[in-house]
Amino acid sequence: MQPQQSDNAVEVKGLTKIYSGKRSRPDTLALDKVSFHVGWGEFVALLGENGAGKTTAIKVLCTLVLPDDGEARVAGYDVVKHADTVRSKIGWMHGETGGRALYWRLNAWDNLRFFAYLQNIPRDEASKRIKALITYFDLGEYASKLVKDYSTGMKVRLMLARTFLSNPEVLLLDEPTIGLDTSAAFETRRLLKLVNEELARPILFTSHNMFEVERLCKRLILIHKGRVIAEGPPSRLTSELSKGDTVELKVASTPDALEVLVQEGLVRELLKTEFDGEASTVIAAVRDLRQAFSDIPSFLVQHGFRLISIKIAEPSLEEAFIRLTRE
Fold it and tell me: Based on the domain organization, do 139 and 31 belong to the same domain?
C-alpha cells in the first residue's frame, strides 16, 4: 500500500459530517465541505467557537469519526481506506482537566509501558523510547510516583509523552492546554514549540487561547458553523481586517454607557471593552476614520463624557476572530 504523494502532512478536501438527530432533534451539520492543509513542519491552529466543528475535524483525522463526504489524508494515507496506517502515523492528545486519559493508580513508567503494549511496540524498543521520553519531558523525578499525586501540569507532560510513544509523524492536539494554570500552560507551550522546531513534527491543534495561538503558530484556520471562513498568518488576518477603520478610545465612563456610540451610528460596533474602575478602554470599528476623529469627540463632550484619548488601533487576533465570526 503506497501513500498518495503529498507535500502536506494533512490534507482535507470537501469534508462533510452530519450528526443524526435523536428523537425530535434535527440533524446537525458539523462540517460543511471543509478544505484545508497542514504542511510538513508547520504549526497550525484550528480556531472556532464551541460547536464550530474543530473537534469533529480532529476526530475525523484521528479515524475516530467517519466523514459523510469528502476526503482526508494524513501523511498521504486516506483516513477511511487506510485507517490502521493513519493511526500508526499520528500522535493524538485530547486536552482535559485532570488527566483522565491516564491510569492514576499507576506511575509514569507503568502508564507508558501499558500504552506501548496497546500500540504493539516491541518490549525492547518500548523500553528505549520510554526512557528517552521520561528524560525529554523532564519526568524523571516523578516517574516512580503514582499519577494520582501529580499536578495537572505533570499529567499533561505525561500525556504528551504518551502521544510520542509511537514516534508519530504528525501531531493532532485538541486543546492541549485547557484547564491548566499559567505556569503549566507556559510549560506545555514551551514543549510543543520544542517538538515542532527541534523534532520538525507538524502540529495541528485547536485552542480558544489567542495568546498562545499568536506565539506558537505561523498560520491559522478559522472555522465557523462547519465552514472555513479565513486562513492565513495571524498578522495578515489582523491587518486585512483593520482596513484603517478601527479606533481605540479611552473614556472616563463605564463600558455600558458607551453603547450609545453604536446606537447613534458613530461606530459600527464595539469590538472590545475594558474597565479599570475609573475609565473604559474601547476598541471600536468605525465607518469613516476621518469623520470618526471629528464626530466622536464632539458627541462625547456634548453628552457629558470625558474623552481621555482617541487613536487609530489595529485589532488584536482576538478582536479579528470576533469580527470574522460576527460577519
Answer: yes
pLDDT in tens, 66-122: 999 999 999 999 999 999 999 999 999 887 655 578 999 999 999 999 999 998 999
Residue 150, domain member (yes or no): yes
Q: Say which residues have a Cβ less than 8 Å from residue 67's Cβ, sequence separation at least 6.
A: 15, 16, 17, 31, 60, 79, 80
CATH number at residue 57: 3.40.50.300
Q: How many structural domains are present in the chain?
A: 2
pTM of the model: 0.76
- Whole domain around residue 205: which residue ranges? 8-232
Q: Could you say which of 170, 204, 232 is where a domain stops?
A: 232
Instruction: Give per-residue pLDDT as tens, 217-266.
Output: 989 999 999 999 888 888 777 766 655 578 889 999 888 888 999 999 99
